[in-house]
Amino acid sequence: MPDTASESAPVILGNEPGSFPHGVLAERHPAIVRQVRDAFPHDPARREALDALLASCADGVIEPLPADADPTGRDRDRWAAWGMDAYAGRSWYDVPWLWAESHFYRRLLDAVGYFGPGPWQGVDPFRPAKLTELDAPETDEELAALDGLDRVPAGERTRALLHGSLWGNRADLGFRLSDRGADTAGKVDALVADDSDTLWSLLPHPATAAAGPTTLCLVADNAGRELVPDLLLVSHLLAEGRVDRAVLHVKPYPYYVSDATPGDVLDALWRLRAAGGAAAAYGDLLWTALADGRVTVRAHPFSCAPLPYADMPGDLREDFAAATVTVLKGDLNYRRLVGDRWWPPTTSFADATAYFPGPVAALRTLKSDVITGLSAATEAALEASGEPRWRTGGTHALIQVRR
Ligand SMILES: O=P(O)(O)OC[C@@]1(O)O[C@H](CO)[C@@H](O)[C@@H]1O
Questions:
Q1: Residues 6+ apart with CB under 8 A from 3
Q2: Cα(164) to centroid of ligand 1, in Å?
Q3: CATH dotted code for 128-402
Q4: Mutation pick for ligand 1 pocket among 368, 370, 391, 398 (CB with most ligand atoms within 8 Å)
Q5: Whole-model pTM?
Q6: Is the ipTM above a cut-off of 0.95?
Q7: Which reaction does it catalyse (predicted)?
Q8: Which atom, in ligand 1's list, is nearest to the CA of 332?
Q9: How far, CA to CA in Å, does 21 sit from each of 11, 29, 374?
Q10: Are 5-125 and 128-402 the same fold in CATH?
Q11: Would you list the domain boundaries of the chain?
């Protein structure tokens, strides 16, 4: 566990009416259940289970995972190790918010029969929404824009692709469920923290590189319009020779509505290759790199754990330790990286991530209250900006790096 600062800041709970976390539990979760119920012709048993989850969201307590929670029982054991016994019987609102949210998605998968056996086994309840987004005209526009990118100087191209991946994090379907204006709300281009120079010093262009082979671990977040620019960035870094190998971490099962799974990686890759033009060239490069082993995809069970990365198991720690740099995408990964706590915003990012086994970077749009690593001047300017939702509205973004 990180020592010093992390122990002192209070863990975020969802029990304060009117707060952002409370709204997620009280409003976003029921909306997600209803969306899933409307999207599939589930049988009566599944519908009953979804209705029970809906009722539980409103006023229920956390129940232990059922005996048939997964065919092997391994996931049940994992949840026991992740705190199930301590939290069963307590209100969703009184346990750590991160834990409650994460467990909600596990219960939802149970309700729809995801872990089977039965006809719904392995059916992603969020797939209709993910595919709609991947097929949206906006995705076409974003991919077509790549055709002009070849003509801009190399440095600008690299920056554009980094920022494409960063701002792609606004494409979060769960977020949009409770914030209908999220797509159109004006983004504030000036980042609240920008350590991108440090990132590039870790991944220098080969022309200036003194060191040996580089491995990038990219811990992905959302599928669709976030994963597509993530893949473009990885492809570009491979093409430029800044990265020799990449490990893409995704979720082993559907999570937080639009989080990317291995199947979503394939959907995004096919989408790129089918787009033609420059997009297809990026896709082809990645395809080859996956086929020859320079890029690998991992779906570690801890990626869906309700815990901070400080509690990661040894094999995941080894993966990150072997990387030249690990880039974590998105808001949830940020919460898990620094700890889902009420940090003073000027808490050092380096201190909060000191436990992480190697250089680490966060690319995140701000969609929850957690924040570290701001200068006092930036914090003061944000507080004075008249925008009360700068922490949660997805309008602001950061690039933070700890070498
Ligand atoms: O990780 P992501 O996709 O950037 O964001 C996940 C998110 O939408 O979910 C949580 C609330 O449910 C918040 O942390 C955040 O707003």
A1: 354
A2: 18
A3: 3.40.50.10880
A4: 368
A5: 0.95
A6: yes
A7: beta-D-fructose 6-phosphate = dihydroxyacetone + D-glyceraldehyde 3-phosphate; beta-D-fructose 1-phosphate + H2O = D-fructose + phosphate
A8: 1
A9: 12, 11, 22
A10: no
A11: 5-125, 128-402
Residue 324 has pLDDT above 70, yes or no: yes
pLDDT value of position 1: 35
Task: Work out the average pLDDT over 348-372.
Answer: 98
Average pLDDT, the chain: 93
Ligand 1 near 113 CB (within 6 A): no
Residue 47: Cβ-neighbour burial (10 angstroms; 0-12, 13-18, 19+) = middle
Residue 33, classified by CB atoms within 10 Å of its CB into exposed (0-12), middle (13-18) or buried (19+), is buried
What pLDDT score does 98 carry? 98
Is cis: bond before 313, omega within 30 of 0? no
Residue type, 177: L
Strand positions, DSSP E, 237-300: 245-249, 295-298
Mean pLDDT of 396-402: 98
The count of other CB atoms within 10 Å of the CB of residue 74 is 11
Residue 369 near ligand 1, beta carbon < 6 Å:
no
Q: What angle do CA 54, 57, 59 make, to 5 degrees?
A: 110
CB of 335 closer than 6 A to ligand 1?
yes
pLDDT band at 3 (very low <50, low <70, confident <90, very high): very low
CB of 303 sitting under 6 A from ligand 1: no
Q: Which token pair is 329?
A: 């995408």
Please tell me the distance from the alpha carbon of residue 147 to that of residue 278, in angstroms, as a whole number. 5
Residue 381 has pLDDT above 50, yes or no: yes
One CATH from 2.40.50, 1.20.930, 3.30.1330, 3.30.70 for 5-125: 1.20.930
Phi and psi, residue 365, nearest 5°? -95, 145
Integer CA distances (angstroms), 306 to 123, 218, 312, 332, in order: 22, 20, 11, 10
**Is there an atom of ligand 1 within 6 Å of 334 CB?**
no
Q: In ligand 1, which atom is closest to the CA atom of 226?
A: 3
Report residue 389: phi and psi, to 5°.
-100, 30
